[in-house]
Each structure stands twice: as structure tokens, then as C-alpha cells.
Design goal:
The chain is α+β, with helices and mostly antiparallel strands and 193 residues long. It has two domains: 64 residues; 100 residues, Alpha-Beta Plaits (2-Layer Sandwich), CATH 3.30.70. The protein is 55% helix and 17% strand. It has a four-stranded antiparallel β-sheet with strand order 1-2-4-3, covered by helices on one side. A hairpin with a 6-residue loop joins β3 and β4. The chain is elongated, with a radius of gyration of 42 Å.
Length: 193
């Protein structure tokens, strides 16, 4: 009776076990190396950040020491009365101009369009020109009306309004002409001093 013959190859089995064990060791080693490599990169970035902060802190401390050693502390600057009043005027300026421009918007007729509004548009250093306010725009009159009439009425309304005319001695129409592009419309320039 001859049955199946089983042969066991012990060498092959030992080789396969050794290869599997080697693979497992390599995978574990690669995992640990990746873990410590990532940890090393993170630590390296913290060290670089710390060095940059130390350099920056040292530079600021050095600049502060130089500034204190040079005694370049702010000094009092003598100002005359006109300079002080100019500073006060500019300090109050945003609130005043907001109110003045809001009032101008309510006084302007519906048919009016502002093209530009400028404070001291020439950029003059003269005290008289510092408060010069120039309004440019156009007004459209009703059909059959004199187009100039609306402009003169606007100037009269601006002069009569106490909220708008505050701070100005003169509000006058400096220039006006008929708009060639729109029939019945007049362009104007009003100067407030």
C-alpha cells in the first residue's frame, strides 16, 4: 500500500519565516523612523522660530538702547496762535464737514448734480485760502424757465442757511455757463470764503 508521500521542506519554511520576520522588522523600523523624523522636523521648526524671535528681540533691545543713549526724546515745539488754531480746526474738521456736506445735500434741489466739492483746491498755504470751499455742479431748470434762475436761488439758499454758512464770510457764484451737452442745464461753480 503505497499512499501519498509527503515531503516537508524544512529549509523553505525556515526561509519564508525569516523573510516574513525581516519584512515585519523593516516595516516597524520605517514606522519608527517616520515618527522620529516628523518629530525632528517639528522640533527643528520650533528651534528656527525661537532663533528668529531671539534675533528680533535682540535687535529691538539694541534699537531701544541706542534711542535712550542718544536722548532723542520728543521735545516741545513752540507754536504760535495761528498754528494752534489750525490744529484745532483740523481736529474738529471731520465732524464739521460731515454736517456741512449733509446740509449741502439737503439744500441742493432734486434737479441738481454735484460734480466736485473741494476744500482749498489750489492747495494754497495762505491763511485766507485755507478755508476756501469750492462747489461745482449743474442744475437743470424746468422747461421754459431761465436756467440761471435755479443757480441764483441755490446761492441765495446757501447764504441764508445758518448751518451751511457758518464759518464763511462770503458765499458767491464765481462762474456759470449753459451746459452744451444737456439742454436747459447750467453748470456752476460756487466759492465759499
Amino acid at each position: 500500500m503505497s499512499g501519498p508521500v509527503f515531503t516537508i521542506n524544512f529549509r523553505r519554511e525556515m526561509f519564508e519565516r525569516e523573510v516574513a520576520r525581516s519584512r515585519q522588522r523593516i516595516i516597524h523600523l520605517a514606522g519608527w523612523m517616520g515618527y522620529f523624523g516628523l518629530f525632528g522636523l517639528l522640533l527643528w521648526s520650533y528651534v528656527l522660530n525661537m532663533q528668529a524671535m531671539a534675533r528680533r528681540t535682540h535687535m529691538i533691545e539694541r534699537q531701544t538702547d541706542q534711542f535712550v543713549a542718544a536722548q532723542n526724546l520728543p521735545r516741545k515745539v513752540p507754536l504760535d496762535a495761528s498754528q494752534v488754531s489750525a490744529i484745532e480746526r483740523f481736529h474738529d474738521s471731520p465732524r464739521l464737514w460731515r454736517d456741512k456736506l449733509a446740509r449741502l445735500a439737503t439744500l441742493l434741489p432734486e434737479s441738481g448734480v454735484l460734480k466736485s466739492v473741494g476744500l482749498n483746491p489750489a492747495g494754497s498755504n495762505q491763511a485766507a485760502d485755507q478755508n476756501r470751499f469750492v462747489i461745482t455742479g449743474s442744475l437743470r431748470g424746468a422747461a421754459g424757465d431761465d436756467p440761471m434762475r435755479k443757480v441764483v436761488e441755490l446761492v441765495a439758499v446757501l447764504q441764508a442757511d445758518s448751518a451751511f454758512s457758518a464759518g464763511y464770510q462770503s458765499i458767491k457764484l464765481s462762474q456759470s455757463h449753459e451746459d452744451a451737452t444737456v439742454k436747459g442745464s447750467t453748470e456752476f461753480t460756487i466759492e465759499c470764503h
